[in-house]
């Protein structure tokens, strides 16, 4: 199991968010796992700031199919994101 899990638990109170962040950081997430976790994430409510923090962290990571699925799922929630999160997403797609 990834060593980053304890750090990620501090970012989010959602049960699904620590799993997706740990899997993204370790790079061990398959597309099938990402799709399953993302579907649970899409159906549950995630606080705005926790979602923004996750978007920033995922956008700063290297490109990965699983990262893109999580990023798309969080962006599909259509929150009014802080400028930092919007900037991180823009720079992610400019790379």
Describe this structure in words.
By secondary structure, the chain is mainly alpha-helical. The protein has one domain (5-94). It is built from six helices and no strands. Helix 4 packs antiparallel against helix 5 (65-75). The longest helix has 13 residues, at 31-43.
Which key terms come to mind for this protein?
95 residues, mainly alpha, 6 helices, disordered N terminus
Topology:
Elements: H1 5-9, H2 17-26, H3 31-43, H4 48-60, H5 65-75, H6 83-94
Helix pairs in contact: 3-5, 4-5, 4-6
Using DSSP, what is the number of strands? 0
Distance between the termini: 30 Å
SSE order, one letter for each helix or strand: HHHHHH
Radius of gyration: 12 Å
The count of domains is 1
Uncertain segments are 1-13
Number of helices: 6
> How would you sum up the global shape?
globular
What is the mean predicted local confidence, pLDDT?
A: 81
Proportion of β residues?
under 5%
Structural class: mainly alpha
What helical percentage do the residues reach? 55-70%
Largest sheet: none
